[in-house]
Amino acid sequence: MQAAIPKGSLVLVTGVNGYIGSHIAEQLLEHGYRVRGTVRDTHKAHYMHALFDGKYGERAFEVQLVKDMATDGAFDEAMKGQMISPMAQITYMEHTEDSVGCAGVMHVASDLTLNPDPYAVIPMVLSGVKNTLTAAARNPSVKRFVYTSSSAAATAPITDKVFHVDASTWNDADVEAAWAPPPYTEDRKLAVYAASKTLAEKECWRFMREEKPAFIFNAVLPNCNIGRILSKEQPASTGGWYKKLWEGDAETLKLLREQFAPQHYINVTDTALLHLAGLLEADVAGERLMAFAGPFNFNDTADLLEKIDADGGGDGSRRWQRIRDAPKDLKTVDTARAEELLRRYGKPGFTGLEVSLKEAVES
Fold first, then answer.
1. What does the pLDDT average to over 248-275?
2. Is the pTM for the entire model greater than 0.90?
């Protein structure tokens, strides 16, 4: 099947320095596409160039500063066909394929501050989505748009309860919880994050229905991402947690043992490949791709990390105390479409938890 966007096309990846964004960029480059990433500051621009320029060449990857995605017109210039000098950050035009605007958009950037105040998070995330969609709709070169949603847009982590999640499931409960009256205490931060992702994805679907842009839209809903960390400069989100746990960080141990609810994991490379499927596969149109590989809890993590350590990944001394009668994630998720798409990219299905953890701790 012919790709929806030809190789060599320019693809915009917002938040390219992040854990998921950097993996999406890597997979795009590996598959023969050019990438323009947005970052908020020059330090992130420099380490992203250091990550990709040597392997893919300076003409394959470029970075544009977007300091505030909520500002009107924030992504207008990023959609256009100007190439940016990677060292000088100088915009210039050439009469080549470089002057053609972006053919695809991966909107990954979001608010990950876990601020419990909904008014500090949700309006900004919604503005970022609206600005990206509007800029894409103004550019006839854009053929595909993929939004990085979240498992949290479908459901919060709910333990010891059997229920089913599919592409029609929405997390309206956390939207209601997020907008509840103050005080905005710390225990509300996850509901606010979930609400921001739920409402942002719903805004994308509203935009498609009412504005009817020319491009095709898909969303990817990943749960807890674990796997390779591409740069030591990255906190690497959830992937970084497991590397810190491996390294003996007490604060991370407390987080994962006492606060992080059992849920599903996904290898971050699989997440990136599902984004590519949403961008490139002609028959993937108007879909929510459920990136849930399988359920896990702290005890599962401890079992596998100790196995990795004993099998030569470490010195064999690592031990973690298990949680007695540990809660479990008992939900089922319809992932048939996601698994079928991963097979198109040479994967047998979802990557296993042990491999994902091993990749994280060895990064």
1. 98
2. yes
